[in-house]
Design goal:
Layout: H1 2-18, H2 27-42, H3 44-63, H4 70-83, H5 88-105, H6 108-124, H7 128-136, H8 145-165, H9 169-189, H10 195-207, H11 211-223, H12 230-246, H13 249-265, H14 273-283, H15 287-304, H16 307-364, H17 368-397, H18 402-436, H19 439-447, H20 450-470, H21 474-479, H22 498-507, H23 513-520, H24 524-536, H25 542-550
Length: 553
């Protein structure tokens, strides 16, 4: 009856799987999966906390148990299951405890079961001698059929690993012979409906390059697993191996990604999928993603403490890291070249402005009024240059993002262009007036303060817009530093009021009163009064307030 039920459930799972729509393995799917994998990497801590909580609950349960009791043996078994794919040292510790309990109880069945599990774990972390010593200490005539299956399966794990990784090819042949002997033994004990039987068949078909049949068996096993589980991770990893063997790059990347996602979601730290995925991405030239994945795999492996996996990771990591560092150096070189280019353009612009100024000065010698007007405009341009230079220096000292540089350079070029055009228009207008003999009109223009007021108003508007573009939450962050009843009521889209404009200059590193006074055209007393009133509205002391202002982002 048990065999019939397994057969029926297997067939039902196969039929259901046939009706599940297949995923289209296109680049869009890989992009979506890569995004999901990165999200899972970011959530690793939350996944680990779930497992750690289960472990703490088991440890709490164990505290009140009688030493060397069946209850302690069972809790140790549960702790082993929690740790075996999470942290090898702790898994080994609890299996050794159970071996001592079984020996104390003189229960060979329990002792051999634990030794078999421990040997399999040793094989997974490249402790091959210890694994073989444990297996050879087991008397196979004294164990149950299920334990015999596990016994041979542990031998498969150990000798499969040794045969694959040994550098001695002649010895590898002997190891594969031992592997095949135990494979034959375990297959005799397994039902054709058993999942392990199908896994072993899949491995054999893959190794003999019968990929179509291997994929069909994997289809059946995949339909019976749930995404986010360790079983799903192992099944998709084996499927990826099939595609690695037949050279299908897209499908191997797809299933390695699926396997890596489930590894992380099920808090498996003995990860092979993401390591192979990083290697594949590296071959494809995706250095950044390969570097991120191999670093994550390295950290997980270090926590798990698997020597073989650490060695594999370190080999790939060293190659990827070297390439990644070369890429960073190349990017830094390009960035330096761009910076030099921008600096050259700025110098060229300054030289051009100087030439233009001298030409304007020569033309303006005819009339003292025109000379004064040009001098005022030149001063305005110099003030603007000083302001942008100060902003540029402040941004460099605070290590702000390149976005600030781009905005202020753009604003500087735009304002320079506007004022150059205005100077030229003013020159033309004066020249035309001179030619027309309108001396009185020129005199009135040179005595008018309206031009300067308008230009400064426009300058403040440009300053406010540029500053609020760089610090869109500036007013809200300043208000957080003030007492509730003393906060500024500035609506979104409005320009800065004088008090906030002074704080904005402080944020940009302009603290000297005379500089603020010169820029805002206020007296030093007015600037001092504004700053004093503002600091009286805060609950912080002066130094703390200034420090918080500089931390505004």
């Amino acid at each position: 009856k048990y065999t019939q039920m397994k057969t029926i459930s297997f067939l039902l799972a196969f039929i259901l799987y046939l009706f599940i729509p297949k995923v289209l393995f296109a680049n869009d799917n890989l992009l979506d999966l890569n995004k999901l994998l990165e999200e899972c990497i970011d959530k690793t801590q939350s996944y680990n906390e779930i497992r750690e909580k289960r472990i703490r609950e088991l440890m709490f349960t164990k505290q009140g148990l009688k030493p060397f009791s069946n209850e302690e043996y069972n809790v140790n078994g549960k702790l082993f299951n929690e740790y075996k794919s999470y942290q090898s040292d702790s898994a080994i510790h609890y299996l050794n405890q159970n071996i001592r309990i079984a020996q104390f109880q003189k229960d060979k069945s329990k002792e051999y079961a634990c030794k078999t599990d421990l040997a399999y774990l040793f094989g997974s972390i490249a402790m091959y001698k210890e694994a073989i010593d444990l297996l050879e200490s087991i008397n196979p005539t004294l164990i149950t059929e299920i334990q015999t299956i596990n016994y041979h399966y542990a031998y498969l794990k150990v000798y499969g690993e040794i045969a694959y990784y040994t550098q001695d090819k002649s010895a590898s042949v002997e190891y594969w012979k031992i592997y095949n002997n135990h494979l034959f033994s375990v297959k005799k004990l397994l039902s054709v409906d058993d999942d392990l039987f199908h896994e072993l068949m899949e491995d054999s078909l893959r190794n003999t390059k019968n990929f179509d049949k291997a994929l069909k068996i994997n289809d059946l096993l995949l339909a019976k697993t749930k995404q986010g589980t360790h079983e799903y991770a192992k099944t998709t990893f084996r499927r990826a191996l099939i595609y690695i063997y037949n050279g299908d790059k897209i499908n191997q990347q797809y299933y390695l990604t699926l396997s890596a996602i489930s590894d992380i979601q099920s808090t498996v730290n003995d990860q092979a999928s993401i390591m192979l995925l990083a290697s594949l991405l590296f071959e494809q030239g995706n250095i950044d993603l390969a570097y991120k994945y191999i670093r994550f795999s390295w950290e997980a492996t270090q926590f798990y403490n698997a020597k073989l996996r650490s060695l594999q990771n370190s080999t790939i990591l060293s190659i990827v890291d070297k390439t990644y560092q070369s890429k960073i150096e190349s990017q830094n070189t390009k960035l330096l070249l761009y910076l030099l280019l921008i600096s050259s353009l700025v110098i060229l612009l300054l030289v051009s402005l100087l030439i233009i100024y001298r030409q304007k000065q020569k033309i303006s010698y005819a009339k003292i009024e025109l000379q004064n007007a040009n001098v005022e405009l030149v001063k305005l341009n110099n003030n603007l240059k000083i302001l942008n230079d100060n902003l540029f220096i402040a941004n460099n000292s605070l290590n702000e993002s390149s976005h600030i540089k781009e905005v202020y350079i753009g604003r500087f070029i735009e304002l320079s262009s506007i004022y150059i055009n205005k100077i030229d228009d003013f020159r033309k207008k004066i020249n035309n007036s001179i030619k027309a003999g309108k001396i009185k009109e020129i005199d009135l223009m040179s005595q008018s303060q309206d031009i300067m007021d308008e230009e400064f108003a426009e300058l403040y508007t440009y300053f406010d817009n540029a500053f609020l573009q760089l610090f869109p939450n500036f007013v809200e962050q300043v208000n957080e530093l003030l007492n509730i009843e003393s906060r500024f009521d500035i609506k979104k889209g409005d320009l800065l009021i004088p008090e906030l404009r002074i704080i904005a200059l402080m944020r940009l590193g302009i603290n000297e009163g005379n500089k603020i006074s010169h820029f805002l055209r206020y007296s030093l007393t007015t600037v001092y009064n504004f700053r004093t009133k503002t600091k009286n509205r805060t609950y912080l002391n002066k130094d703390e307030f200034d420090k918080k202002i500089m931390e505004i982002k």
